[in-house]
Amino acid sequence: MPRYDLAGRTVLITGSTGGLGTPLARALRDRGAHLALLDLDGDLARRQAADLGPDTVARGWAADVRDLDSLRSATDAAAAHFGRLDVVVAGAGVGSMAPLETLDPEAWERVVDINLSGVWRTFRAALPHVKRHRGYLLAISSMAAFVHSPLNGPYVASKAGVWALCDATRLELRHEGVGVGSAHPTFFKTPMMDDVHADPAGTTLWGGNERGLWRMIPLDKVVDAVVTGIERRSPMIVAPRRLGLAARTPGLVRPLVDRIGFRGTTVPDAIARATPAGWTTRDR
């Protein structure tokens, strides 16, 4: 398939000012894309856009992925401003850490509402515009969709749901010429991971993400993978590529992860060190 040229096309990003959204927006602008930047903090999104160029090529809007009307208003405004929407990147997301037994129900609701329902709302709001140009919908999921860490129930469930939602939507829109994909990076440095590393439970589970199965990869590797995936209109983007087998055969990999990744008393030790009611990270 020929490369999907981003020059002159409009890409809408939710969570645009976050740990991944910020460098991704820059990389897409470097490819010549026009950018509709959506964030809960509209002023921050507008400042981000101003740093990327005049409002003919980048503009920011306030939008809350927990509110369909908010997303519709922002996507309609972006389409009117740029004259088209070609690509949507649903990137808004949060994390949480606590065992099921003590997790605050509101923490569960918030993570699932933003990470999973937020993707559905983003796609729903943007779809009429994207269909018009036979474009591409992408959601930022995670390797956590396939490798499920304890104390991360809301996060892993939401990311697995994102993968399933994208896969179902891909089949629904295939005959319309619209591509749909999900991106599955492993751990990489963001404000979300800073929150995890500040929690004794997180460092107990993943050892600071410095080595082995849980080692973080450079942020630029994730950005490069996502941009390349958009240009290929990929149904699945895995970063790093070496984890592709784990993403495609999670049932086979799971026993190995259980034995090597969570040895001995790692899980009960993490539970003992967790904040009982849990917490949710800052929006990505």
From TrEMBL:
Keywords per UniProt: Oxidoreductase
Coiled-coil positions: none
UniProt cross-references to Pfam families, sorted A to Z: adh_short
Keyword Manganese found: no
Gene Ontology molecular function terms on file: oxidoreductase activity
InterPro entries referenced in this protein's UniProt entry, alphabetically: KR_dom, NAD(P)-bd_dom_sf, Sc_DH/Rdtase_CS, SDR_fam
Residue intervals passing through the bilayer: none
Statement: the UniProt record of this protein carries the keyword Cytoplasm: no
Domain Ketoreductase: 9-186
Matching SMART domains: PKS_KR
PROSITE patterns attached to this UniProt entry: ADH_SHORT
Family: Belongs to the short-chain dehydrogenases/reductases (SDR) family.
Protein name: SDR family NAD(P)-dependent oxidoreductase
Gene source species: Streptomyces antibioticus
